Amino acid sequence: MAEDPSQDMAISERLHHLATEAGEDAVSLGWVMDRLNERAFGLFLLILALPCCIPFLYGVPQIVALPLMFVSVQLLMGRNAPWLPERLSQRTVTAAALTDLATRADPWLRWIEKLSRPRLTGLTRPPVDRFLGLALVLFSASILVPLPATNTVPGMAVAVIAIGLLLRDGVLVILGAIMGTAWIATLIFAGATLASIIRGWIGI
């Protein structure tokens, strides 16, 4: 089988290539994953996370959060390639949405690609990537919290980790993990504070 030349493309170029392949039709998540080949884990995580990075975007982040969490669990389990059950793989995205996603992400993806290089590569390979899988599960779960702008920070954290995995850049992986962990800690603190206030109101 001939080698797919798109696999040597930069991440930003790969997203544009994927949007071009989609043509004018809506495509399924299964279709997207089939075309990512050996880079499926990192790119699929990135593609699912990018819509979550858009502030005050409702509906879409919650739709992609479940597949994102499902794929993260598989990374935690040590799978070599992601798999989606039929029900999740049949979820569709329009070609226009893929094109818009690639266009919006292009400037900052190219900026990150210029700054990034392979470093601390052990953080991007087994068995350390299993710990990343656990972190990604938690970050994905927080995207489901139905509060304004709650998807943005964890979405960015997942996207940065995904890019780190793709570029074998452990520094990006650490940065993404810090972002996501800080966000989870903020949610826990806010929840505990709110619970304390409510208990004070009702006199418990």
The helix-and-strand class reads mainly alpha
Radius of gyration: 18 Å
Query: Which H/E pattern describes the elements?
Result: HEHHHHEHHHH
Uncertain spans: 1-6
Describe the largest sheet: 2 strands, antiparallel
Figure out the total of helices: 9
Mean pLDDT: 80
> What share of residues are in beta strands?
under 5%
Helical residues, percent: 55-70%
Query: What is the 3D shape?
Result: globular
How many separate domains make up the residues? 1
How far the N terminus sits from the C terminus, by CA atoms, comes to 69 Å
Q: In what order do the strands lie side by side in the largest sheet?
A: 1-2
Number of strands: 2
Topology diagram in text:
Blueprint: H1 11-22, E1 27-28, H2 29-34, H3 40-49, H4 60-77, H5 86-89, E2 92-93, H6 95-115, H7 128-143, H8 152-167, H9 170-202
Antiparallel strand pairs: 1-2
Provide an overview of this structure.
A two-stranded antiparallel sheet has the order 1-2. α1 packs antiparallel against α6 and α4 (60-77) runs antiparallel to α7 (128-143). The longest helix has 33 residues, at 170-202. The chain has one domain (5-202). The protein has nine helices and two strands, in the order αβααααβαααα. It is an all-alpha fold. The radius of gyration is 18 Å and the shape is globular.
